[in-house]
Amino acid sequence: MIPSIDLLDGRIVQLQQGRKVKIWVEEEPLEFARRFSSFPETQVIDLNAAMENGNNKEIVRDLCRVVNARVGGGIRTKENAEQMFRAGAKKIIIGTKANKEFLGLLLKSFDRNRIIVALDSYNGKVSVKGWKESTEETPMERAEKLRDYCGEFLYTCIEKEGLMKGIDWQTIKRLKSICKNELSVAGGISSQREIKELNALGIKTVVGMALYTKKIGEFK
To answer: Could you confirm whether the keyword ATP-binding appears in this record (predicted)?
Structure first.
């Protein structure tokens, strides 16, 4: 399981369907993140940067000191990527700029296994720019096109995100069948059973709302 930390206006939040803020964490981000220091990976997303509405770079840098961070949100230039790696990110997540040209540029300087391509999907189509714009590409089409340019794919079902009503099994299984890259999924996870079933398939789970609301148990 990969805990998720989403940053908005300097605070940790949890959203529903990428829009509605359901949880504002009162605790300071650095202190809150220490709870996840023992996890192999923690996902840190700068929502402001993703939506092109400022950024939380200083907080991201602080969090990279206490968790094994995979960092995403607004990484759209090689300089952005370099900044995140210098800050201590173990991996970076590329969404809007996930194309062969940009990823090829990154691969000249960084190991493929440190690059994750985001497959953020709404109604079966990939969304970009902080989930504000939809493309005509399906997650499967993007995965097939970019599987040689990254070590891992992160599939998020936007319409299920934050609702804790179950995951998009159909798309997840299709993605798993078409590429050998590592695969992690987010959106709708609601139980330990789902996490175990995904793990049995070799798929990692990124958990936010179900963790913060203690639906899958306590965390300290």
So the answer is: no
Task: For residue 162, give the DSSP letter.
Answer: T
For residue 72, the cross-strand partners are 45, 93
State yes or no: is 9 an active-site residue. no
CB-based contacts of 134, cutoff 8 Å, min separation 6 = 122, 123, 125, 126, 127, 128
10-65 pLDDT, tens digit per residue, is: 999 998 887 778 889 999 999 999 999 999 999 999 999 999 999 999 999 999 99
Which listed residue (6, 111, 148, 168) is catalytic? 6
Active site residue 6: yes
Quote the domain boundaries for residue 67: 2-212
Q: Can you give the CATH number for the domain in which 6 is found?
A: 3.20.20.70
Active-site residue identified among 9, 120, 148, 168: 120
CA distance 10 to 197: 35
